[in-house]
Amino acid sequence: MLLAIDVGNTNVALGLYDDGPEASGGSLRTTLVRDWRMRTEPRMTSDELALAMRGLLGDYVDQVTGVAALSTVPTLLRELRVMLSRYWSDVPHVVVEPGVRTGVPLLVDNPKEVGADRVINTMAAHHLHATNCVVVDFGTSTNVDAISAKGEFLGGAFAPGIEISLDALAARAAQLRKVELLRPRSVIGKNTVECLQSGIVFGFAGQVDGLVRRIVAELEEAHGGPTAVLATGGLAPLVVAESQTIQHHVPDLTLLGLRLVFERNFRR
């Protein structure tokens, strides 16, 4: 089985993919067998990373036949490489960074600035939809990225993430506090908790819809249409149901992209 590891700023996502061939066509399966999440700790060592991940994998540890990984946390990137060389040295493994084959043209001013997660999401979105795509990634920040029908990464927009915004509001406003992230009973909140929930849930849905509409308009003017709009990230379920522009919710988009980059580098 292939182990996909996505080290983000807030959480680490792990996914296991089956290595067996499909019944038809002989292509490799892209079905996610199991997945796990754990909190990101930027000061973890390679040994601590291995201990935590192998603990989550349990009996699946001995079934890992390959590893694909990325890290958007610079302090953990080196530790991730060391962990793979120590604990999974006997299986093929790849860490997504400059020089790794992805096949994604980066049509931006400085390609080195583009995070590995955005490149991998581009791969996965283009694999799923042979059209223009917009990927909305609800993570520590909310990333809205544009992808051409040719699979080119065109750039995008960043906005503060949902949890960051809520934390900042609670920290700076004396009468406000952190609340559970749930859809309130109505847009017009009847108490402090509902007012906060309304602003977060419906406010972020409106923000995302506004950005997506503008990006789709530019995409289709420059490249023609249509455009598929995908959402991913841990907080996506909170907003997807309220969004008017998101068409597809793909929770494992980044893990799928890691699967694809592994196949590109080891299964030619």
UniProtKB/TrEMBL annotation:
<comment type="subunit">
    <text>Homodimer.</text>
</comment>
<dbReference type="GO" id="GO:0004594">
    <property type="term" value="F:pantothenate kinase activity"/>
</dbReference>
<keyword id="KW-0418">Kinase</keyword>
<dbReference type="GO" id="GO:0005737">
    <property type="term" value="C:cytoplasm"/>
</dbReference>
<keyword id="KW-0547">Nucleotide-binding</keyword>
<feature type="binding site">
    <location>
        <position position="192"/>
    </location>
    <ligand>
        <name>substrate</name>
    </ligand>
</feature>
<dbReference type="GO" id="GO:0015937">
    <property type="term" value="P:coenzyme A biosynthetic process"/>
</dbReference>
<protein>
    <recommendedName>
        <fullName>Type III pantothenate kinase</fullName>
        <ecNumber>2.7.1.33</ecNumber>
    </recommendedName>
</protein>
<keyword id="KW-0173">Coenzyme A biosynthesis</keyword>
<keyword id="KW-0808">Transferase</keyword>
<comment type="pathway">
    <text>Cofactor biosynthesis; coenzyme A biosynthesis; CoA from (R)-pantothenate: step 1/5.</text>
</comment>
<keyword id="KW-0963">Cytoplasm</keyword>
<keyword id="KW-0479">Metal-binding</keyword>
<keyword id="KW-0067">ATP-binding</keyword>
<comment type="similarity">
    <text>Belongs to the type III pantothenate kinase family.</text>
</comment>
<feature type="binding site">
    <location>
        <begin position="6"/>
        <end position="13"/>
    </location>
    <ligand>
        <name>ATP</name>
    </ligand>
</feature>
<dbReference type="InterPro" id="IPR043129">
    <property type="entry name" value="ATPase_NBD"/>
</dbReference>
<feature type="binding site">
    <location>
        <position position="140"/>
    </location>
    <ligand>
        <name>ATP</name>
    </ligand>
</feature>
<keyword id="KW-0630">Potassium</keyword>
<feature type="active site" description="Proton acceptor">
    <location>
        <position position="117"/>
    </location>
</feature>
<feature type="binding site">
    <location>
        <begin position="115"/>
        <end position="118"/>
    </location>
    <ligand>
        <name>substrate</name>
    </ligand>
</feature>
<dbReference type="Pfam" id="PF03309">
    <property type="entry name" value="Pan_kinase"/>
</dbReference>
<feature type="binding site">
    <location>
        <position position="137"/>
    </location>
    <ligand>
        <name>K(+)</name>
    </ligand>
</feature>
<dbReference type="GO" id="GO:0046872">
    <property type="term" value="F:metal ion binding"/>
</dbReference>
<dbReference type="InterPro" id="IPR004619">
    <property type="entry name" value="Type_III_PanK"/>
</dbReference>
<comment type="function">
    <text>Catalyzes the phosphorylation of pantothenate (Pan), the first step in CoA biosynthesis.</text>
</comment>
<dbReference type="GO" id="GO:0005524">
    <property type="term" value="F:ATP binding"/>
</dbReference>
